[in-house]
């Protein structure tokens, strides 16, 4: 191999790597998390997301019920905090990072986001030793309806 061939191959590899990194950062997920000033599990959830590459800005918010109503999150699917992606999708409660990424990769038509209602033990940010309570991740639709997006039956499913 000549030096010119080696340099050409190195240059092509560098361009491919730079393109891949640019694509990665272009698709980076950032959320604004609206929470009660007294809530601690919300910050724990955000830390779990950060471990998975999803970054967030925390904002204390006094009228969470009003915000949730404005965003179209029904009272039966609410939790302690509401996250909103830069492109306007909502993630209510302790939704695992993998499902946020899956949803954002191909948001279903007529949906507004995902929800994990209440605060299931063992969900991200709600860890209590080895205790775990199976739960569902719900798909929230613009018309107020919802359906099951994912079943989380063990910590490995998160």
UniProtKB/TrEMBL annotation:
Q: Which UniProt keywords apply?
A: Signal
According to the UniProt entry, where is the signal peptide?
1-28
- Lineage, top-rank taxon, reads Bacteria
- A Pfam family it matches: DUF411
For this protein, the record's InterPro entries field holds: DUF411
User: In its UniProt entry, what is this protein called?
Assistant: DUF411 domain-containing protein
């Amino acid at each position: 191999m000549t030096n010119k061939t080696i340099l050409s191959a190195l240059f092509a590899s560098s361009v491919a790597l730079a393109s891949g990194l640019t694509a990665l950062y272009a698709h980076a997920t950032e959320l604004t998390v609206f929470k009660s000033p007294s809530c601690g599990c919300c910050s724990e959830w955000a830390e779990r997301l950060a471990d998975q590459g999803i970054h967030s800005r925390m904002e204390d918010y006094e009228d969470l019920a009003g915000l949730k109503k404005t965003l179209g999150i029904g009272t039966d699917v609410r939790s302690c905090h509401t996250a909103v992606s830069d492109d306007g999708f909502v993630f209510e409660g302790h939704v695992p990072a993998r499902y946020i990424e899956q949803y954002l990769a191909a948001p279903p038509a007529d949906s507004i986001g995902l929800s994990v209602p209440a605060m299931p033990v063992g969900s991200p940010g709600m860890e209590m030793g080895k205790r775990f309570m199976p739960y569902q991740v719900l798909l929230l639709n613009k018309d107020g309806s919802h359906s099951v997006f994912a079943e989380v039956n063990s910590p490995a499913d998160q």
